């Protein structure tokens, strides 16, 4: 059985009937089920924005790690 990575779930048929109600009831991610298997997740905009920011931070951290072995270059502030 697949694990559901949300505290709430809704059938896809119920979602089709009234998507606005599903969004309003959601206080976090909602698993969308088709035949009792998760096929998608409905995520509030604020949570999605936080996820995107976190992913961007992780990408930037990888760049920093990759460049940490490089020789630093001295520059004057005025040159920037």
From TrEMBL:
<comment type="function">
    <text>Antitoxin component of a type II toxin-antitoxin (TA) system.</text>
</comment>
<dbReference type="InterPro" id="IPR036165">
    <property type="entry name" value="YefM-like_sf"/>
</dbReference>
<comment type="similarity">
    <text>Belongs to the phD/YefM antitoxin family.</text>
</comment>
<dbReference type="Pfam" id="PF02604">
    <property type="entry name" value="PhdYeFM_antitox"/>
</dbReference>
<dbReference type="InterPro" id="IPR051405">
    <property type="entry name" value="phD/YefM_antitoxin"/>
</dbReference>
<dbReference type="InterPro" id="IPR006442">
    <property type="entry name" value="Antitoxin_Phd/YefM"/>
</dbReference>
<protein>
    <recommendedName>
        <fullName>Antitoxin</fullName>
    </recommendedName>
</protein>
């Amino acid at each position: 059985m697949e694990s559901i990575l949300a505290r709430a779930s809704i059938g896809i048929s119920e979602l089709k009937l009234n998507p606005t109600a599903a969004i309003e009831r959601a206080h976090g991610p909602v698993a969308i089920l088709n035949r009792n298997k998760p096929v998608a997740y409905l995520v509030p905009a604020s949570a999605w924005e936080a996820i995107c920011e976190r992913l961007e931070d992780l990408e930037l951290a990888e760049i920093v790690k990759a460049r940490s072995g490089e020789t630093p270059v001295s520059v004057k502030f005025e040159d920037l």
